[in-house]
Design brief:
Keywords: Membrane, Transmembrane, Transmembrane helix. The chain is mainly alpha-helical. The chain has a domain at about 20-80. It contains two helices and no strands. The chain has helices at about 20-40, 60-80. Helix 1 runs antiparallel to helix 2 (about 60-80). The radius of gyration is 24 Å and the shape is elongated.
């Protein structure tokens, strides 16, 4: 019978995360911009259905908020596709 060898520390496969710290930081920045965009889009309704409120057509809701959401989505895509740092590899 052969004795099974226990793998030593040098033989064990090293477990690594898929993304590096920078990728996660970029993801959180993108997520924050997306959340901020949706917060800026919120509101603008009228309590009385017979009264029209012009504030739904403000610059903040029509231009700024959707732009922030799209920039946040772009940062998310970049964070996913960004290659890990080559300095950390041995």
């Amino acid at each position: 019978m052969s004795k099974s060898k226990k793998p030593t520390d040098s033989q064990k496969p090293r477990k690594e995360f898929i993304f590096q710290k920078r990728n996660y930081q970029l993801m959180f920045v993108g997520l924050g911009l997306i959340a901020l965009g949706y917060i800026l889009m919120a509101g603008g309704g009228s309590d009385d259905p017979n009264v029209f409120d012009e504030s739904i057509f403000s610059f903040r809701r029509i231009r700024l908020a959707p732009t922030l959401v799209l920039i946040g989505l772009g940062i998310q895509v970049y964070a996913i596709l960004a290659s890990p740092s080559k300095k950390n590899k041995n």
